[in-house]
Request: fold
Amino acid sequence: MNAEVVAETVPEKKEFWRWQESVWIDETKDWKSAKIITCGIDVGSVSSQAVLVVDGELYGFNSMRTGSSSPDSATNALAGVMDKCGMKLEDIHYVIGTGYGRVNVPFAHKAITEIACHARGANYMGGNGVRTILDMGGQDCKAIHCDEKGKVTNFLMNDKCAAGTGRGMEVISDLMQIPIAELGARSFDVDVEPAAVSSVCVVFAKSEALGLLKAGYTKNKVIAAYCQAMAERVVSLLERIGVEEGFFITGGIAKNPGVVKRIERLLGIKAMETKVDSQIAGALGAALFGYTLMSKKAAAA
Amino acid sequence: MIANYGYKDGSGEYYISIDTDKCIGCLAERACLAACPKQMFEIITDDYDDEVAWIKKPNCRTLAYDCSECKPAGGYSSLPCITACTPGAIKHSW
Reply:
């Protein structure tokens, strides 16, 4: 068999886990007339975001997949949003790096942990009523409690295992061969709500999911069982810090109603809604920290 | 701020909580640093520019093993870090 025939017979490898990257600019604002322009760069384990804040207001963002190099990911994320609005790095007064790769953002003036940045970002997105924040990141999960100013008062992070994270959902998406954006809706398309997948570990959960398929579960039912397992897992983290009204979810999984609705059901409270992309909360918070720093400097001068 | 360092896995929940409000201007002269046999504590400047103790990153993923020697099975009646921290900023979840 020659190479050409092999290429024809091997099925195309589909990336079911691949989520939608996005660039957005607020066309109603003009950055050229702004006094302070700050940028937050969140280099996460799975996704990278660059957010531009103009005079303390969200102006634009770029959300894309993190590559193998943190500095390149940061540069590409920022280039994407700057290209969209014709801005140059010299036009930005202050850059703050956050996320796993925060110390590897080459043009950042300062690095701040993603915990403080997510709280600040959620406070902007959801208003000063936000108290409990759940960040379901690519490879970790954070439960944060904050005050009315978005200052962290209690937090915990679980980055030891991928259960309850975006990566876990990507694994299930690939296993089921269903695009990740469809998982949430499909998880509700079941006749009877199944019990949660019992395995805590993603690797074992994957094996268990395969077993359930062989036992006659439909794909939708397996997805529902996995969404329920994720919800139960993160709720146990939230309960550790104490859940208060003003519940806000950040990170990519906030876009998955299959997990969000189940978390709401378990907690008995509804998550606050926002029009802003939930994935940019960390970078947005970083940019807002930059704005506060620059404002203080300007006031002191 | 209550900072919880550690993890939850299939075997249980392992978190060390540090009340950073009690950590600022430590009245025990940072005794936790010397008290921990594994030297897991470190003083850092946090996101709000306060000097507080935290658990070193690598230890956050191995607490169940790192702290095992100081638990009752290791012959201790009370944990050295908790005893040393007279302001009461440190707690273990297990």
Remarks:
- Chain A has nine helices and ten strands.
- The beta strands of chain A are 22-25, 37-43, 47-54, 57-65, 94-98, 110-111, 132-136, 141-146, 152-158, 247-250.
- The interface with chain B takes residues 112-113, 115-116, 151-161, 200-201, 236-237, 240-241 of chain A (CB under 8 Å).
- Residues 131-271 of chain A form a domain with the Nucleotidyltransferase; domain 5 fold (CATH 3.30.420.40).
